[in-house]
Amino acid sequence: MPRRFVLVIVGAAGSIVGFATGALVAQPGPFKPEWFEAVGTWVGALVSAAAVVLAVLVFRSEEFMRRMEVARLNQREDAAAKSVARQEFLAAEAVGCSLRFASGHQYPDRWVANDLYLNVLNKNADITVTDVAVYIPALFGDRWRPLSPFLPAGQTAMEMGSASEPLELKPTNDDLSGRAQFRYTVNGIRWTRRNGEAPVRAELT
Question: Where exactly are the transmembrane stretches of this chain (predicted)?
Answer without folding.
Answer: 42-59
